[in-house]
Amino acid sequence: MKAKTMMRRMTMSDPISSVGETEPVMTGHPRVAALVAAYNAERTIRDAIDPLLAAKPDCQVYVVDDCSRIPVSAYLQNTDGRITVIRLEKNAGPAAARNAALIKILAAGFDYVAIADADDISKPDRIAKQVAFMDANPKVGACGTWTRHFHDDIADSTFINRRPGDPRAVRRLMFFNMGVSHASAMIRCEALRRAGLYSQDYPAAEDYDLFRRIGQRYELANVEECLLNYRISPGGQSMTRRRQQLYDRLRIQLRYFEAGAWQAWVGVARTLVTLLMPSGLFQTIRSGLRARGGGS
Q1: Which of 7, 69, 153, 260 is most buried when burial is the number of CB atoms within 10 A of its CB?
Q2: What is the pTM assigned to this prediction?
Q3: Which residues of 245-282 are buried (b: 16+ CB within 10 A; e: fewer)?
Q4: How far is C-alpha 173 from the geometric centre of its chain's CA atoms?
Q5: pLDDT digits (tens, 9 = 90+) for 99-146
Q6: Can you list the alpha helix ranges (DSSP code H) found in 73-162?
Q7: Do strands 219-231 and 121-122 pair parallel, antiparallel, or not at all (unpaired)?
Q8: What local confidence, expressed as pLDDT, does residue 21 receive?
Q9: Long-range interactions of 78-82: CB distance < 8 A, separation 24+
Q10: CB contact set of 81 (below 8 Å; sequence gap of 6+)
């Protein structure tokens, strides 16, 4: 997901506010930009984008085509100018792809960025409810929602992930894993200017790193309603990818470690145990938790 000139690594110390110096700030445009990173998503991307275009308040949709085999522009019509497609010359991965769009979004003067994966489906009122929540809670830098997880070939929900709404509970959860669903997140643009964009140092957990940084400066929260249908890929997550995600999570936990918080110690210990656990045992425990409605 990105053009060569946009693929440098972004860190906490990057002067993000400077990205707007080369592009004029837009006037009379929507307050919300929806960011969709797409890679070979021709089968599902229409389902992801249509609810965003139908949302009130209006959204400008930025689609980053991470060098898909079929260019997004070949099958995605932009009849009213509300879809901006950015195609990358080489496949760059989720972090660099989203950063390519965020540079343009921050320069254009939007208030909020709504994250949307190319295979998920937002509820019609997702944007309106998150905007209302963020407007009413200026200390919150990012908020997610509850998510309904589903398979294409299963009629009923696999499970509903109900993360806590209270920022204090979310903060405690962030010591262990993501306390906010990244797939359903709305992020305050000012929070991105202050915390920085996605880091490419954690390719399997770039969202966790970003939200740990935002959480150092703002509160994190969730709208306690199911406002996103989260599609589970048919093959699931490979064990190699899962172990990389755990390894990256451990590195992030150690980077932002708070010795005075007992949750920080337990979080690191739990990640270590999970990382060392045989894959079969891990899947058995995870399936059992989901069967009881816990999610993950």
Answers
A1: 7
A2: 0.84
A3: bbebbbebbeeeeeeeeeebeebbebbeebeeeeeeeb
A4: 17
A5: 999 999 999 999 999 999 999 999 999 999 999 999 999 999 999 999
A6: 94-108, 126-136
A7: antiparallel
A8: 28
A9: 82/53, 82/58
A10: none
